[in-house]
Amino acid sequence: MEKIFVTGHRNPDTDSIVSAMSYAALRNALGERNCVAVRLGPLNDESKRILDRFGFEPPVFVKDMRIQVKDLDYDTPPALSAALTVNRGWKVLRSDSSITAIPVTNEEGKLLGMLTAGDVASYDIETIEDPTVRDIPLFNILSALEGRLQNDDAAIESISGEVVIGVPNGMDRGLFGHENYIAVCGDQPDVIRSALEANIHCLILCETELSPELRSIPTRTCIITTPYSAYRAARLIFQAIPIERICQTSDLVTFRLDDYLDDVREVVSKTRYRCYPILDPDDRVVGTLSRYHMLKPRRKKVVLVDHNEAAQSVTGLDQVELLGIIDHHRIADIQTANPIFFRNEIIGSTTTIVAEMYQEKGLMPSAKMAGLMCAAIISDTVIFKSPTATPRDRVIAERLARVAGLDLDELGRFIFTSSQGDDKTCRELMYNDFKEFHIAGHFLGVSQITCMDSVTMLDRKDEFLAEMKKATAEKRYDIMLLMLTDVLLEGTQIIFLGNADDIAQAFGVEPRDSTFFLPGVMSRKKQVIPMLSAMWG
């Protein structure tokens, strides 16, 4: 069963993490059991503390969801041992017309080379010009010829020599000039006697047995009998060599299971192999890839929560099969080829929507999960002080708190009285909750830090501005905002880079030294972004 990945946005906040985890748990509880919550960035400190409090491990980190080799229906032909004979390899190639090449592996199962029908054919033609074989293991010869060794006491482990049938041309009948021969013959006593007396390397007797008289001749020759004819036996000798000697071992182009299809296509377009071996993380062969496998790849199945904007989503979103979106933000720019499940509501937290889906399915979350979901709602609604908060958020949070045995006020203090970040760099603080937006041709970067003492945070304004200048130069933002949202003041201190006139027009303020205060502003999506959108039309 294919996995379904549930993910929130990049630079995830607590609502993004928890809505993904709780929705995946809901689908699994309803019988699918294949949903996996993932995250697209590191956990911020708040999310870590909340997950630790309720005993949850963070979702798996996923950097990219582009199509990979492991998503393809690649071939899985047998991987042959390098010591196997050529004729065995040829039989495997002929057994399936779809197999164009077979991986050859060493004793550890790691790739040594690739064997094709062309390799076998080329070698077969070469044996006509040079009928000499070298160091063929004795076991290989016996296997290829279905032969029997007639002198077991012969101290020989491999066979070498020029293969001849009967008496070599140019020789006196019955005489072998030297030992470096492999003679193949039938019931030819004179040839057999001469071969044994000359102590040639090997004598292959076809469709006959060694007579007692000839058996008594002292010899170092290895004697083998075979049921095959002399011609066929001679050809089989050449095919008894190990396939490692004829397979391609150099200039191999390999791919790994985690390689991305975009990169694979680029490599394949520059080469002309019919198939390519695929390796696992241990360098063992798992299959072969051909061009036609790339035509209809399996796409990863994905559900998005807490966002519906491509710039905030996973890399490779255009290559996934998007199954659904659950969100409470503005409708943005994600497009799909087919209809999908889309649930977008005017509510303070995506986790509230997921909690209501539990209710709709008649499923009560566990006490641990209820506590986690309650914390996410409190975090995203800033203890219900955010203008995005609704009565539904409070009702659901209170219900989850009862299930988990929690006090909402205590939980709120736990979430928002954490360290003000004195032990962290401004860069770490700024990217804890950071989002990018494209509005009417303008590119924005907006960070939000929710705290209990924004005045103390403002003391580090120069540090924040230095980091913001680096980010603006790198990403070419038109405007960059840092929101220091103060729970006690119920407002937001803003540090900004960009056109001061645009800022003044959008927010109705007179900024000084790149800062200004917005009383009553607690929400990025419902207050800050709409003000900029309205200004730019």
Classified by CATH, the class of the domain at 4-67 and 300-416 is Alpha Beta
User: Per the principal axes of the C-alpha atoms, what is the gross shape?
Assistant: elongated
Uncertain runs are: none
CATH architecture of the domain at 4-67 and 300-416: Alpha-Beta Complex
Instruction: State Rg.
Output: 37 Å
CATH topology of the domain at 4-67 and 300-416: inorganic pyrophosphatase (n-terminal core)
By DSSP (H or I, 4+ residues per run), the number of helices equals 18
Strand count, sense and barrel status of the largest sheet are: 6 strands, parallel
The SS-based structural class is: alpha/beta
- Quote the average pLDDT: 91
Strand content: 15-25%
Strand order of the main beta sheet, please?
A: 3-2-1-16-17-18
Through-space gap between termini: 46 Å
**CATH superfamily membership of the domain at 4-67 and 300-416, which one?**
inorganic pyrophosphatase (n-terminal core)
Number of E-state strands:
23
- What percent of the residues sit in helical stretches (DSSP H or I)? 25-40%
